[in-house]
Design goal:
With 731 residues, the protein is α+β, with helices and mostly antiparallel strands. The protein is 32% helix and 14% strand.
């Protein structure tokens, strides 16, 4: 039987098993959350937000009953949202109170967030049985936190749900895109080539006969829209205003955190300095797709002795560096491996396997589908796996006293959830603004244009594919691909993974690698999915994974997996889903969390999803996001006042025609300063807040997009800028 979950822990429970587990209540709810995510719609940034908010809820439900812990949400102002709270006495049985409050908080938020899940009818009875097995009265809906832990958990959940309805995610409208529009018409994936694309530098939708998302849910929309292109507007965890650049397109704002600058571009005639870099990036995806054949006779060592151990300084920062970092025709990168396992003092045992098996397994393991908890959830599963290993320690940062299991779990989830949330905001903000294409649309379009190697050969176009003997060639007369009456002679053929048309039964068939027309190229994915419905640059997998790896490294105080080795077993002919395989047993192995992250990044090239130019910026940005998230979370653990992100004003309606209602968590006078989206100062006005509210008259302001910021009477900034639009209607 083929596996259904790409996770470390099988998340299936009977009702009677809940009370028998030896894990903390936070772990129980986290695993139930991961199971719910795996059956929900595959929306990585939205699921990262769910992981973050429920982790925050569990952390506060633990911290509020801890004698010295500092809460994150209760009694605090988070991005302009104030959560009222007056301290209550610490109960005699602290652990029991914490467990109960955590359970009610997680239960209520999950009921709210997964109400529209395609698996809701199955999920909700499971949640009810979990509450029953833990001995809690789930009919207690009181949000009076003074009445006890149940009321506390319900109150925390209610306030986080309320916060989420104004955090920039547009949850109230089911996260629907508000203004993003693709510039390219859809490409019909079942047809060869890509005749409809207008701009190869911009994202293009795909049109399917039937689209099934990464979690295996069938969509009623045969042309799925760009998922979350405006996610840069969501309020972050640890990122600061100084990390953000604000851009504008068609009068609409695009906040971008950790801006990497634009991706390499291709001009129409490939004469720009970046054209060579653009073409090389997508050509490497083609070259690596030719490696996915377990019958090619090539074997490699996939143990940490030969793979891993990249230093940050190894990551390239220019085109020459990219060409040196990636092994163009053999796959992988220049990582040297590890001489010894530092935990045992012994060399790592080699594991020599077929290269095609390894690369297919890697592509599917990190693809997080079907039926998976998406990339941010995958790293929660890895964290849980780490905690179950012999030799794992529960010292935050590797120092100080050992935490009990509950404290360790809530602090770990709190930190990791914040990092995954910030990684989503960063990656999807960049995706929405830079709006880059995907290999399947670009490579098919380039193939249709022709070859760019020799103007004296047939079918030449400077923005076409590069000819490589044995991999990318012109179809000659007499070639099996020449077509009826030589219709395809002088078109381009490629030696590559042949695609789903060569897989009559995924349970027993293998497409293999062979020659096909380049216009028929498929990524190593399912034909009902093909590629994620959002822009490529930057790689979400690279960003999530490196952020998570940095969190696990910093939180455990050790870059290595317990015992110096993390493993995941993939049994022969049972593991792969896209096609049959692997042909032999394979065990994925990583010495460090960063090694696992780097393999995840490479897997997206093997899978035909990303070129290198999407990968490396994601790794570098993810590193910063992870380190910042740990530092920010750790300040709570130490009882310090963390360097909170500057809060945001609440304003509405937006867009407006005449006046804005201002909401801010304070009383008295507030100085408001208005600038145009281009930075031009418009005016400054002092308003008096009554119960945190005031009205700002903007009838004198021309129609356009503006930035409003708030200061106290001493000129100190109190609030992060708020973006709004004015219109002439009804003035």
């Amino acid at each position: 039987m083929k596996r259904q979950y790409l996770v470390f822990v099988v998340l299936v429970y009977a009702a009677t098993a809940f009370s028998q587990t030896h894990h903390s209540v936070a772990r129980i709810w986290n695993e139930q959350l991961l199971d719910a995510i795996s059956k929900d719609f595959a929306r990585p940034p939205i699921q990262a937000r769910n992981l973050h908010h429920i982790s925050v809820a569990m952390y506060d439900a633990w911290a509020v009953y801890h004698p010295s812990a500092q809460t994150y949400f209760l009694g605090k102002t988070v991005h302009g949202f104030y959560c009222p709270y007056h301290p209550v006495p610490i109960p005699n049985d602290i652990k029991a109170a914490q467990n109960e409050a955590i359970s009610f908080a997680a239960y209520r938020i999950m009921q709210h967030r997964f109400a529209n899940s395609p698996d809701a009818k199955n999920l909700f009875p499971v949640l009810d049985k979990l509450m029953d097995s833990l001995g809690y009265n789930r009919l207690n809906t009181s949000i009076n936190y003074k009445t006890g832990p149940a009321g506390m958990g319900n109150y925390i959940a209610a306030k986080i749900i309320e916060y989420g309805l104004q955090d920039g995610s547009n949850e109230a409208d089911n996260f629907r895109n508000q203004f993003y529009k693709p510039v390219n018409p859809p490409m019909i994936i079942a047809f060869p080539g890509n005749p409809t694309i207008q701009d190869l530098n911009r994202w293009q939708p795909l049109q399917f006969n039937q689209f099934i998302d990464q979690s295996g849910n069938q969509s009623t929309n045969a042309t799925p829209p760009f998922q979350s292109p405006e996610w840069g507007q969501v309020k972050p965890f640890a990122m600061q205003a100084s990390d953000m650049n604000l851009f504008e397109r068609n009068g609409n704002p695009y906040p971008v955190y950790h801006d990497p600058g634009p991706q390499p571009m291709l001009d129409a005639n490939a004469t720009s300095p970046q054209a060579e870099e653009f073409i090389w990036n997508y050509m490497l995806v083609l070259w690596w797709s030719a490696l996915l054949d377990p019958s090619d006779g090539v074997s490699i060592d996939i143990s940490p002795a030969s793979i891993g151990n990249n230093a940050v300084t190894d990551y390239p920062t220019d085109f020459t560096g990219y060409q040196a970092f990636y092994n163009e025709f053999e796959g992988g990168d220049i990582s040297p491996g590890h001489a010894v396992n530092p935990k045992t003092g012994q060399p790592y045992t080699p594991q020599v396997v077929k290269r095609g098996d390894f690369m297919r397994v890697l592509a599917e393991f990190w693809a997080d589908g079907p039926k998976s908890e998406t990339p941010p959830g995958h790293w929660f599963s890895i964290f849980n796996y780490v905690n179950d290993q012999a030799g794992s320690s529960r010292k935050v940062g590797g120092v100080g006293p050992e935490c009990d299991e509950l404290e360790w779990d809530v602090k770990g989830y709190f930190t990791l959830g914040g990092a995954m949330h910030d990684a989503a905001i960063t990656a999807w903000g960049i995706k929405g603004w830079y709006d880059s294409g995907r290999p399947v649309t670009i490579l098919r379009a380039m193939a249709e244009r022709g070859q760019s190697s020799d103007p004296n050969l047939p079918h030449y176009h400077p923005a076409g594919l590069t000819l490589v003997p044995g991999l990318i060639e012109l179809i000659q007369p007499g070639d099996p691909l020449e077509g009826l009456n030589g219709a395809y002679v002088n078109e381009i053929k490629i030696k590559t993974w042949r695609g789903p048309l060569f897989i009559p039964n995924p349970a027993s068939s293998v497409a293999g690698v062979g020659w096909i027309r380049a216009e028929d190229w498929w990524p190593y994915q399912r034909p009902t999915f093909v590629t994620p419905p959002f822009a490529g640059y930057i790689s979400g997998h690279s960003t999530y994974s490196r952020a998570a790896a940095e969190v696990l490294t910093a939180f455990t105080g050790d870059p290595y997996f317990p015992g110096g080795l993390g493993v995941f077993h993939c049994p022969k002919n049972e593991y792969l889903v896209f096609e049959d395989g692997p042909s032999t047993d394979i065990t994925l192995e990583w010495a460090t969390y960063r090694d696992a992250s780097d393999q995840c990044s490479l897997s997206r090239i093997y899978g035909g999803i990303h070129p290198p130019m999407d990968d490396i910026p994601g790794r570098l940005i993810g590193r910063q996001v992870g380190l910042d998230a740990f530092d920010y979370a750790h300040s709570y653990f130490e009882g310090k006042t963390p360097p909170s992100p500057v809060a945001a004003l609440n304003i509405f309606p937006n867009p407006t025609t005449s006046a804005l209602q201002i909401e801010a968590p304070l009383e008295g006078e507030l100085d408001l300063r208005l600038h145009s989206i281009q930075g031009q100062f418009m005016f400054e006005q002092t308003v008096s807040l009554l119960s945190g509210k005031a009205i700002l008259d903007i009838r004198s302001v021309p129609a356009g997009v503006y930035i409003l910021s708030g200061f106290n009477q001493a000129g100190e900034r109190l609030f992060l800028e708020k973006i709004f639009r004015t219109e002439f209607i009804n003035r």
